[in-house]
Structure formats: C-alpha cells, structure tokens
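Two quick folds needed for the group meeting slides. Do the first one here.
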Amino acid sequence: ELEPYLLGKDPTRVVHHWQAMYRHAFYRGGPILTSALSGVEQALWDLAGKSLGVPVYRLLGGPTRDRIRLYRSAGTLEDVEQQIAAGFTAFKTGVSGQRPARIVETRAFVDRTVKHFATLRDAVGPERDLAIDFHGAVSPQTSRLLIKELEPFQPMFVEEPAQCQNVDVLADIARGTHLPIATGERVFTKWGFREILEKRAAAILQPDLCHAGGIFEVRLIAGMAESYYAGIAPHNPLGPISLAACIQLDATIPNFLIQEHTTLGEGYLKQPFVVDQGYVQLPTAPG
C-alpha cells in the first residue's frame, strides 16, 4: 500500500515521507499502520546514513553517550546467574504466582510473587538493577497489593501494572507508590503518549521503535517525555535489526534509561553486538 507513494522519491526526506504516509492513509495510527511506517522509516534512515557515510545518530544531533546499557529478561535464578556471568548488570522478571492473577489475590499469591522477586534481588545484589513486568495482565486491585509488598526490594521499575487503555487507572496506581511505573509497548505515536505524560501515569516510557512510528517519532516522544522528567527505556522483544535501530535512537536522547533486547545478533549479523559490563559501544558504521 505504501509502495506507490515511495517509488522514485528521495529517501533522505525521511520526516516528509513519514508525515505523508501517516496523514494520507485512510486510517490514522494504530498498530498496523504505525508498524508498517516504522519499518519503512528505519529503512529510510539507513539509506540516508549510508548515503552520507555516517551513523544515523549523527543525523539526529549526535550522541549524548558513548555506550548503551542493556537489560535481559530473567525468569529464574539460573537465568540471572548466567546473565551476570555474561556481563549484564540489569534484568527484568515477571509476576510469579504460579497461575493467572485473580481480581483480588490471596496472601499466598502475593507472598509467592514477592519471594520470587526477593530471591532474584538477592542474586543480583544492590549494585545491579532488577525490574518487574506485570504485562498488563494483573488487575489494578492486585497490582496495588503486589507493588506495596515489592517496595522494600526497590524494583528498577514496575512495568504495565494495568492495561494501557485506561490511563486514569494507571495514573492512580502511579500516585500510590514511589516506585517508577513504566508503560508504552502498546502505545503508538506522539499522540498516544501525550495523555500518559499529561496525567503522569508513568515515569518510564517504553515505546517500541518497530510499532510506535520509527526512530524519529520515538525521538519526538522522548523530547515530550523529557519535559515531564520521564525516562525512556525502549521496548524490544524482537530481533537484532530492532536492537540496531534502538541503539541509534538511544545514543541521541538525554533521558535514555536502559534498552531491552533478546539477542545481540549472533548467527545473524555479520558483526554482532558485544556486551561489556552491561553496555554495548556505539556502532560507527554508516546507517
């Protein structure tokens, strides 16, 4: 659907093409259009960078840092130990109640989840970070119970303690705790993130560069977030191409917190990313 518009155009007019494809579409926004736009937009930035012989972050104002901190998901103690040995310093786990959470949970369910988190917290120690993801699958009633009990263990952030569709509920949870609340993997474009920021529903935003609109759109979201003192921790459960795009963006924003990833590109990229003490160095190749 986008091909007829793009053929024959100057690929370096990235922002112009994004606006044209977004505004001229019959439907505005949503996961399908913005995911397609994100892929095209990342490819246009790659072409623009290669045509000028510079990394994309050089076209976005240059780097604000020389390395990018990564975190990995860790469901078990063995996962954490392996990833510490691999050099990681930050991790994210989930709710471990052994079954789906009910609207209002039992003391036993809460205790099991907190015990699991406490075990991992002991393993990572006070100098490393450990976050927890509720996946939007826990009711607000139970999320409040869990957050209260998790506070002494200081999670790096609590991700999606409620579904993102009702921002007021998320804002209410955020006001009830000093722990940073994170959300954004199912929110699209700057317009989608505006309400979250205005209502202070999250202190950490997690836009996905492959769904939220691409590199420059998330750069704009990060700028909006900066004015609300919110950090950016891009969502990325995808592959190494997504990670490569994220790193270009992460390099340029002052309020970058940490980058999610699942693979460094081993067996796929000619030059996989390399983690050193929890960080990867900025790439220097064009695009």
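Then this one, please, same format:
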Amino acid sequence: MSKKIIIDTDPAMGTKGGDPEDCFAIMLAMNSPELEILGITTVQGNVPVERGYSNAKYLVKEFNKDIPVHTGSPGTYDAERNKKRSWLAEREGMEQITPILKPSPEEISAPSFIAKTCRENSQDIEIVTIGPLTNIAHALDEEPELAKHIKKITMMAGAAKIPGNVTPAAEFNIWADPESAEKVFRSGIDFTLVPLDVCHQTKFSRDQLNTIGDNSHPLCKFVYESVKPWIQINPNQNIIDQGLHLYDSLAMALSFKPDLAEFKDAFVTVETKGEYTDGETVCEFNESIMGQVFKPEPNAKVALDIDVEGFNRLFEERVLNYLINL
C-alpha cells in the first residue's frame, strides 16, 4: 500500500537564481509508487511564496498529475521575525521562467489544507517538509489537535553535529523561520530530522545536469535552464566545482526508504533568541554533561549517516533516467 503524504516545499525550479533542488525531490516522489501525494503546499523560503506556488503548479502540469497545490501566505510565523526576514518575500529581481499564477479566490490556504486533510485522514498522513516550517506552525494553530492526526513528519532541516550553511550556526530552512520550527518541535508530532550532516554526502554534478540538457525535450531544457544559474551564482566554491547537494531529494527518499540511513534518537530544539545563533538546531543525544544529568526525552530521530550508493541508485533510476529518456 502506498504511503499518503503531503509535500510542504519552497520550490525554486522555474525562478532563476533560486535553489531548484526541491523540484528534484518532487519528481522523485511523483515517480515513486511507494508514495501517494495528496497535495503540495508552498511556503516562503528559497523564493517568495507566489513564485514557489507557480513553480509547483507548473511541475504538476508537466508531469500530468492530478495533485492539488495550495499556497501559504508571505512572511514568517512570528511578526517580529517577519521584519527581519521581510526580504525573503521581496526578491522581485529574480528572473521567472514559469508564469506567475494566482490561486482562485475559493482555494483554501496551505495551512487549512494541511489541517483539513490530516483531520480527514487521521494517523494516515505523513508530511515531508523540504522548506521552512511556517505552514505547519499555522496549521497547528488552526487545528489544536493536529498533532494527534499527523502520523509523522520527515523534514530536511537543521544541522546536528556540523556547522550550518546560511550562518555558522544555522541551516537555511530553520534559520528562515525559527519560531515555526520551535512550535513544530514542541508539538508532540513524531518527526525525523534529515540534517546537513547527511545531506552533504549527496551530490548532483555538472555532468549530470549537462546530460539532462543534452535532451531536447522541453522539460529537460526547462530543468537545465533553471538549475544552471544556481550552480553559477552560488557562493559556495564546492558547489561551483562539484555540483549541488541533493538535500530535499534525500529527505524525500528517506520518507519511504528509511533503511538508506542510520538514525539516532535525540531531543531537538531550536535557538530563537541568539544574536549570532538564531535558527541553530540543538540536538541533545544525552551525550553532553547536562544531557546525561537531565536525560531529556527524545522527540526526534536524526539521520547521521546514509547509504550514499543506495541513494544515488534511487535518484538515478527515478529522476535522472526519467528525464534523460523523455
């Protein structure tokens, strides 16, 4: 039986200069019979939320899938944080490849869709979050019993034992809206954290992108046109030299093939008050002095190692080969 999921995402494939990798994760999900996608919800993150909504709608149309797409609102969960992160909603200079679409007036919001769908499929829904957790936090406000209805969340988020990528302390998805992450972490929902520790073991190379670009199919040209600028403008020299990390695709893969990773129980929280450490995920494995004294109850499973070759085979089979053979 297929696992029912909702994908919560900030997809930038279709917006030049945004991180396009979310859409590889969505492609992986669409081509995986283990998953039944009940909906895609978009959140402000890599790109302004209206661009993510438009990019997701375009991808669903190109794959000829009947998957509803719902958008969240611009902004972060906390009003004060929103002032600090307002620029995330204001990047008008980014070149848009896909047409900008607006939801119809009767379309419900992403948090309402999440709350309604999980309530109607109680304990039968898993959410895969590959962007900031703003929509989930708002859904918890709309449905106070939501934690009882969600079976699990698999999230690409945080850094457990290594530095962050947007600051020395923080990974982008948590840094973009740490208050929403704190609310979700404390909600009682079971969650699996797929942090930078394992995501940095994955790679999508320039050669792989060029192979996709060699196919004249319009979808392949779209993928090539969307991904190439990100590799070119990214300030991380390793990405320029070697390619992209497949952060979100790894989280998607682990949502239905958890045997690809080794996990460790941890109590995970997030720093929201630090001057230099905002958005830091603090993972207590009860190995520190205070952890051994107080022994906080774990609230998450954290991926700390992966079968790189197994993941590469899965990604090649269901994403690369699919595109190359269109």
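Slide caption for protein two: The mean pLDDT is 95.
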